[in-house]
Amino acid sequence: MKLRSKLQAIIYAIEPITFLVINMKRLVHASHRKKLRNIILSISQKTGKTKMSIRWDLFIKCFCACAVYSEYESMRLYERPLREMKLIFTHGRSQRVMKFMKTPETKRIFAHKPTFNSVFSKFVKRDWLFLTEKTTLEEFDIFVKKHPVFVAKPPQANKGSGVWLVNSAKYSSIEFLYQLLIKYGTTLVEERINNHKDLDKFSSTSLNTLRIITLLLPDGIRIIQAHLKFNLSGGIADNHLTKGFMCPIKFDTGEINGNIDALDENDESGEFHPSGFRVIGQKIPYWEEVVSLAKECTLFLDDVYLGAWDIAVTDDGPLIIEGNNGPDFNFQTAVHYPINSYMQQARKYVKKCRKLKKKALLKGENSIE
Asked: 21 and 134 share a domain?
């Protein structure tokens, strides 16, 4: 045990050097150097700091946080003091932990949306159809007659890419629409879900979902990150990488406790929504039910220790839109800083659970703040 602890200590000590080397290797390529120059220029314009001081700050903080250089901007490390670098869960730290959080079989379920819908059908709560060679035109016709306006998406895409809202009345025939969906690979068609009236004011064009990240620890399930996502550019997808925005949510009350934020350097963050209302203090409807749903989904399969759930809230309550293999930790506000320490606890716990039945360990102990 002492030898193992010493080896682990050595690995942790050299980890920052490893990611320093990774950053240096990336900067050999001209495209990465150009991206780094753009990041430095953008931050200089935002903060008024000199480019040289930003370069030095970037080097030190990326080294201390085991971060790739792009995270200096996306995680806003330039705004955070050096002492907080050990608390932030960066790409480098995630690489050591994430591989333990799901088995390869479970990852395949989350990577394929139709399979996810089938396995988690009791939480999906909506009609859907996967267009395969076995799907008949008659089955598709029945679906369209029931849902003339529906959502189509690729079965394995991520970050909101390829999702579109289909109005079947605009197409000459059902057969033509069917072939068009097959041609473009948007073969998962789903019933359109409408926002709860209190969430629709954030964006009426997108389905405004909640990203809830759950982590299984020895004392139960803990929510380690929660955000409301929405689109302000008129798009249907709420993903923050497709011109979407996010607001952090306070775990215990379900109230928004931070400004609107975005990763796009051309988008402005702020305390007020473009329509005029103040976002901080806005209450998420059905919040207790949302938390219960996320925790129930986490326990639904034996090998899910880290869950990143996209949950929609309608006037009738919450439902699962999808689960994700790779949570996005770019938006770590002050309340999220313990993520890194939680992850290290979880890593040890997962190893223990690989030997024992998870549900036996959690029997009667699956509730936590």
From this structure: no
- The predicted model gives 41-46 an average pLDDT of 90
287 pLDDT higher than 80: yes
pLDDT tens sequence across 149-172: 999 999 987 766 778 899 999 998
Q: Does one domain contain both 217 and 317? A: yes
Per-residue pLDDT, 261: 72
Q: For residue 254, with 0-12 CB atoms within 10 Å meaning exposed, 13-18 middle and 19 or more buried, which class applies?
A: buried
Number of folded domains in the chain?
3
First to last CA, the chain: 33
Q: In what helix (H) or strand (E) does residue 120 lie, and over which residues does it extend? A: none
Range of the domain at 314: 196-362
Query: Would strands 210-217 and 244-248 be described as parallel, antiparallel, or unpaired?
Result: unpaired
Same domain, 205 and 67: no
Q: Do 163 and 229 fall within a single domain? A: no
Whether 270 contacts 232, CB under 8 Å? no
